[in-house]
Design goal:
single chain, about 350 residues, BirA Bifunctional Protein, domain 2, 2 domains, 7-stranded mixed β-sheet, 3-stranded antiparallel β-sheet, 12 helices, 10 strands, rod-shaped, binds 3,4-dihydroxyphenylalanine
Length: about 350
């Protein structure tokens, strides 16, 4: 074992070790248990006493110089590796962030909220009611004759003999009057169910908004004024409304309500919205039939009169946005939905 060459070769190996892992291998080779220098140091004891001192001094100097060089090189490599890691991991806070997709309400929900907003502005209070209701509230208390055709199981989803998926939001008229005395200004939105064959204007599940007003001295004029305000908010400031006689079991008189067409000059030329009629049917309405007050407490038909209406939210959304088929609103094809985001 030649201390000079161990030292010079060792220092050389330390100097060129490319990283801390390689340096650790060099350290083991130079100063590990089986390293020639270490073995030589261990064998010092077996040398003649007069040789031990000088030989030990040389070997220890070599060891110290190697240790010092290893430590220095290690600090150097660690610093370089840290620099490197920091450079690689650096976060550039000026880069644009990952875009978070924001959701938005479905067109049906958007349209419904917009309508409710108009009604709130007119003084109506919003109520929420169950989609499953009694036959009593869905039909009987709304003055449907026992033989009324929509009661049939071919038209209505029955849960059991006394319970249905509501076919309209009108049972909320009964719920409201059962839960509070007059006067009432109530609006509600919710899903309704009918065993209709789906087509461009019908789906088995749909969304309705119902309004009910009961107060002293209400007349058809108040109903018309209310619906005119609604029509102008939703379809444009210069709309008119028209009431046509109709029949509903729970209103007397009953009307269908048309809004003047918002899409054409109303001169009879072809129009995809009104078909050249100049008017578009938007809802059903009427004066609350006094017979309904007989199904609830505290509503004296001599003191109170009321009006009510019901409208399809899908229909109104489809009309306003020229969606030709309301089934599309339930298919949730994002190519359509995202146009309303
Ligand atoms: N419930 C009716 C329907 O679903 C809509 C309706 C008509 C509601 C007249 C009313 C009303 O409150 O007065 O066809």
């Amino acid at each position: 074992m030649n201390p000079d060459s161990v030292q010079s070769e060792g220092l050389q190996a330390i100097a060129v070790a490319p990283d801390t892992a390689a340096l650790e291998q060099v350290r083991i080779a130079l100063l590990g248990r089986k390293a020639p220098l270490v073995l030589a140091l261990r064998e010092l004891g077996s040398l003649p006493p007069e040789d031990r001192g000088p030989r030990g001094k040389v070997l220890n100097q070599v060891r110290q110089s190697l240790e010092a060089a290893l430590d220095a090189r290690e600090s150097e490599l660690e610093a370089a590796e840290l620099d490197d890691r920091l450079r690689r991991d650096r976060i550039d806070v000026t880069l644009p962030g990952a875009r978070v997709e924001r959701g938005f309400a479905h067109l049906i929900e958007q349209t419904g909220r917009e309508i409710l907003e108009v009604l709130v502005g007119l003084g109506y209070r919003i109520s929420d009611g169950p989609e499953v209701d009694t036959v009593y509230r869905n039909f009987d208390a709304l003055n449907h004759a026992p033989t009324h055709p929509t009661r049939q199981a071919t038209d209505t989803y029955y849960i059991d003999e006394h319970t249905v998926l509501r076919t309209h939001t009108s049972p909320m008229q009964i719920r409201t009057m059962q839960s509070q005395p007059p006067p009432v200004y109530m609006a509600t939105m919710g899903r309704c169910y009918r065993r209709d064959t789906p087509d461009a204007t019908h789906t088995a599940m749909f969304t309705q908004i119902e309004g009910l007003a009961v107060d002293r001295g209400l007349s058809l004029a108040h109903l018309k004024g209310t619906l005119l305000a609604f029509a102008r908010e939703m379809f444009g400031a210069d709309r008119e409304v028209r009431l046509r006689p109709h029949f509903f079991p729970f209103t007397e008189p009953s009307v269908e309500v048309d809004v003047s067409c918002f899409n054409c000059a109303r001169d009879g030329s072809p129009c995809r919205v009104c078909k050249g009629e100049g008017w578009v049917e938007v809802l059903g309405a009427g004066m609350v039939d006094p017979a309904l007050f007989g199904y609830v407490e505290g509503y004296d038909p001599e003191l109170w009169t009321g009006y009510a209406w019901g409208m399809g939210v899908e229909r109104i959304a489809a009309l306003r946005h020229a969606v030709p088929d309301i089934r599309w609103l339930w298919e949730n094809d994002l190519r359509l939905m995202e146009q309303f985001g």
